[in-house]
Known about the structure:
By secondary structure, the chain is mainly α. The protein is 54% helix and 2% strand. The protein is elongated, with a radius of gyration of 21 Å.
Amino acid sequence: SCNPAAFETVLLYMYTGRLALPPHQIEQQVDEIAVDLDLLQAVKRGNLAAATHALSCGADPNFLDSTTGLRVVHLPCMPGVPEDVSGQIVTLLWTANADFSIAAANGATPARLAAAHGRKVVMAALVKALRETPCFSINEVYDEAPDDWKSLLEDSSLEPALHVLDIADQLGLTHLCLLCEQWLARALRRASIFDLLRISDEFHCMQLRLICLHYFKRHRHCCKAAAFKSLPKELREEIVWSCQGV
């Protein structure tokens, strides 16, 4: 059935040529920073389980602590946490596509920090991380998302645009579809990237699809988020191919 509010938006577009959708919500950006901070604190404390959970929620393994000038990848190389735990954290960050060549504000790389503090176990983990590239497990058996996946977007900030896009697609209103794509692209956040990619696939939104794939190129750690597993296999393969082509 047609969403009444969305149909009114489409009618308004047909009379005025404008897309009248509510402004984007920005609280998701705050949530993303909170997840990054959770990872930062977990690595500082040597809490492997909490770090694993934060990464599964899409935390950035290269997140910068603005107060210290250190990134998450530098913390296991510092004294404090037992070295065997720090070595495991390095391996965990490696599987999340962390960049171990990145320098801190003072110019020190993780390897230089580990060497300066005599952390041999961490050095060994770093050498492995710098030599090898983590593999994406796209052939694992994942639970496929339900066929009515669009129902998962109900009451989300994307729902109004999705309803309008659905009607525009059915009516063949190409220009309105492009306007919806632009609106959705401006709503791109870490929390919404997987939904937006599925929307782009469902409605053949090529601009939105390319924007999503470019986001994955710049944020490869998102491929380790739990939501990645719910994507159809063909989309997971396309993301992996796109990231490996960097």
